[in-house]
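Morning run. Coffee first, then this:
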Amino acid sequence: MNEKTVLVIGGTGMLGKPVAQQLKADGFNVRLLARNPEKAKKLLGAGYEIVKGDVDNHAALKEAMTGVDGVHISLKGGPTEADFERMDYLAVRDIAQIAKEKNVGRITLISAYAVSEEKADTPESRSKVKGEAALKSSGVPYIIFRASWFMETLPLFVQGKSISLIGNQIHPLHWIAVEDYARMVSKSYQTDETLNRELYIFGPEALTMGEAMKIYAEYAGVKVAPMSTTMLSILGTLTFNAEWKGMSVLMKHYENWGEDGSPEEADRLLGAPVITLKEWCNKRTPQTVNS
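And here it is:
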């Protein structure tokens, strides 16, 4: 039995929940910070220690970080600029500062491949750059996961009987299953060789967003519906839909920036991702793709 305790902040989210589950499966004691402990317990089941609170509550953060060996940050900001600043910068900064006070052994942070000073052209990317800088300067050993697009995001683009391909997405992307990512995060807590590194987490095959959506559409029984970022922005403005406006900005960002960096180091240290998009689809839907 592993005696180490890892706090997962954002452990009920799409990317945080599998990490919490994988850490627990690998023998770690897993603690969660949750606004609604009963909801978290219902979602994740028994066997987790849950501290009530959120990232705006410093007293709760200090309680949650007392006696832990590591903290995994899996927060989602947006859609407004203030929300991105709050979650991707201020929360990461505060967590890192408290972790330093509490002598936490390491912090792991989910980020994205297109986060850097030269690519900070959106409220989200600018906030992430500042959050990463605050983490690095805190003095707490860190691991930043620069992940490509997650397969689990594909259903989020489905509305009714269509899946929206937003913008001119020409860049090949190494789509990754959250199951592979969670395994890699857990493995990073089992070796010190990963400390103070930025690790690029890329899946086993490269597909443009259009190619990936076509594969998923065949499994899910929907059709691919192209839409420009400009049209989505206009629709968001007309309907006062901040999510749509934010999505148009995000997808414009990814029109401009493809993957950079290399997954070679992450693959060597943590084991390469193996799940392909078709394998992931087969696990999720009963349909079979026409070949």
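The chain has a mean pLDDT of 93. Good start to the day.
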